[in-house]
Each structure stands twice: as C-alpha cells, then as structure tokens.
Amino acid sequence: QEEEPDPSDLSVDHDYFQEQIWPRLARRVPAFQSLRVRGSWAGYYDYNTFDQNGVLGPHPQVENLFLAAGFSGHGLQHSPAAGRAVAELVLKGRYESLDLRRLGWGRLLDGQPLKEQGV
C-alpha cells in the first residue's frame, strides 16, 4: 500500500504501471504480454458510499424509473447481468434469470447495507 501512487496527484505514473501493474496483469492474463499501452488517464470514480454495491431496480417514489447505478469500478463486470435484470423488470415486471432484489432500493431505505467485502 505504501508503494501506491498519491491519490491526490492525478498525473499518470507510467513507471508504477509498467513496474507494478503490468507484470501482474500479464501473469493473470498472458495475452497482456503482447499488448502495449497506447494511452492513459488518471481520475476519480464515483461509487455508492452506502455499501459500495450497485442499486438496481425500480425507484420507490418515481413511477416508471428503473436504475442500474452505483456499481463503480466493477460496473463493467456486472453490466451484462444488470442490463438483463433491468430489461426483465421493464418487459416482464419481474426478475427471471437472476433474482437481484437484494440490490434494490429497499436496503437503502431500511438502512441495511449489503456490504461489499472486495472494496
């Protein structure tokens, strides 16, 4: 953790990426060994501060408003399932493939976080 870049400095640390991040990526996904960085950026991302999990489903007070938000850094990983879930809610009025009710608004309104242990 002490080797991580200063989060208040949004300049890209190319050396940190090449020396710390890239080797780990290449070990995990060997195809990365043959790829080269063509561009980069650094920035902050927003996330659900209540429990670091997405909020999915119909809004409790606004009729016909469905959300799939707050997934932050793992949004790309969850987007296929979240998209399918919202489509099922809109088209069928219920979840069919996966029951994702626990990601709904109820937990926020009830003050019952679904803690994300990976953050």
UniProtKB/TrEMBL annotation:
The keyword DNA damage does not apply. GO terms for cellular component: mitochondrion. The keyword Oxidoreductase applies. Keywords: Oxidoreductase. It comes from the Eukaryota. GO terms for biological process: mitochondrial respiratory chain complex I assembly. SUPFAM superfamilies: FAD/NAD(P)-binding domain (SSF51905). Residues 6-89 form the FAD dependent oxidoreductase domain. One of its GO terms (molecular function) is oxidoreductase activity. Required for the assembly of the mitochondrial membrane respiratory chain NADH dehydrogenase (Complex I). Involved in mid-late stages of complex I assembly. This is FAD-dependent oxidoreductase domain-containing protein 1. It comes from Notiomystis cincta. The gene is Foxred1.
